[in-house]
Amino acid sequence: MPKRKAAIAVGGVAALGAAALLLPNAMASQDKDATAAAGTAKTLKSTDASTLSAQIQKQLGAAFAGSYYENGKQQLVVNVARGDQNAMARAQQAGATVREVDNSTTELKAAAQTLKTKATIPGTAWAVDPRTNKVVVSADSTVTGAQWDRLESTVDGLGANMATLRKSSGTFKTFVSGGDAIFSQVEGGNVRCSLGFNVTASDGSPAFLTAGHCGVAAKEWSDSQTGQPIATVDQATFPGEGDFSLVKYDDPATEAPSEVNAGNGQTVPISQAVDATVGSTVFRMGSTTGLHNGQVTGLDATVNFQSETDPNGVDTVTGLIQTNVCAEPGDSGGSLFTQDGGAVGLTSGGSGDCTSGGETFFQPVTTALAATGATLGDGGQAGAGDQAGAGDQAGAGDQAGGDEVGGSADPSAGAGDQAAGDGTGDQAADDQGAAQDGTAQHHKSRHHRSGN
């Protein structure tokens, strides 16, 4: 096989050079209880805020109750358990705005554990929202009748100050796509996913990260719908504690630059992996829907998806990032990143689309790197530290087929399944989303490994 250059590209006409035009209006602070000593709160980029949050979390220990980023003020807000004046002072000295809250991280995790025990219902999800200092529980359109009553009763039992319940449009399901479209031939048709980020495997070989549900769907992957395989799955996790795969290029001479192709010949260098911070602006590139942006809305999210092989079953993925960035079928595995080149996540699943809105969940890149032993960019795997979240969480969906339709640039959440069946072939980097029909491909393997 000739030496080839593997670049992360996504079908979108918008380039990152124009990303400022897509940024939402700056949001004014709504936190009346947030305080900071005059002149001590630092002005930070979102990636720097993530790093500062990790540092403060280590300093405060149990007193740390989460954090989020205020885009308008470009400041990090840190929640501190009520009554700990010493912790508040230390967080202020470190450069954060500090807010005293009622619920500690331990209490929020306990609430999430109760949800896991009593309300692991297909079509539900939960994540910690540090802005409200509560666990936000979502239910999609399939949760009705006795299941809704059970979920509502469980949430009510946690207390109004601990959790909130809301309806989510559409149905929670996994995505397939994100960076360059990648294809695999499986029984029943083609499966299409997306390349997330190029990495270097622990043995020094070139590889890439994509969604775990892609890695358990097929072993060998090509960069064209009818082409020969160019990469083989080395590790894949789905469902369970994450949704990520490490796929090694078959040719060890493959050039795999650490960059995202933003379309129109422009690329964004990816320099490091960073943990998500609630409130920060993030960008997603998808071979179906192109470039979209939005905000991180929750951390350590659990999603419970209906099993497609068992009408009474549920598939669960934990530890995800929740956002309001839209996505659609064909976007699974793709790149979630910051404007200044921080790799944040891999597209997993969600509800809605880029027309009606919804929510999308992402696998944290930092967790995927730690689990696979791979390195990104200059080899840095460091992110912003552990994310204060909702504890044990459920969820990854099965891969369903369906039409893949390109979306608009509105920041909203989408849902995508693994497209199988007849596709439209390769998508150019400036393609904003061709339709691709597919049939469902479901894979129940919790952890799959295969050699090159």
Could you name the key traits of this structure?
6-stranded antiparallel beta barrel; alpha+beta; globular; 452 residues
Q: How would you portray this structure in words?
A:
There is one protein chain. With 452 residues, this protein is an alpha+beta fold. Helices cover 14% and strands 33% of the residues. The protein is built from six helices and 27 strands. The protein has helices at 46-60, 85-93, 105-118, 145-158, 212-215, 365-372, and strands spanning 8-9, 34-35, 64-70, 75-81, 97-101, 124-129, 134-139, 163-167, 173-174, 181-186, 189-194, 197-200, 206-210, 220-221, 231-237, 244-249, 259-263, 266-269, 272-273, 281-286, 290-306, 314-323, 335-337, 342-353, 357-364, 419-421, 447-449. The strands form five sheets. Strands 20-21-22-25-24-23 form a six-stranded antiparallel β-barrel. Strands 12, 13, 14, 15, 16 and 27 form a six-stranded antiparallel β-sheet that branches. A four-stranded mixed β-sheet has the order 2-5-4-3, covered by helices on one side. β6 (124-129) and β7 (134-139) form a beta hairpin. α3 (105-118) packs antiparallel against α4.
Brief characterization of the structure:
The chain is 14% helix and 33% strand. By secondary structure, it is α+β, with helices and mostly antiparallel strands.
How many whole angstroms does the radius of gyration measure?
20 Å
Number of beta-strand segments:
27
Question: What percent strand?
Answer: 25-35%
Helix content: 10-25%
What structural category do the secondary elements indicate? Answer: alpha+beta
The spatial strand order of the largest sheet comes to 20-21-22-25-24-23
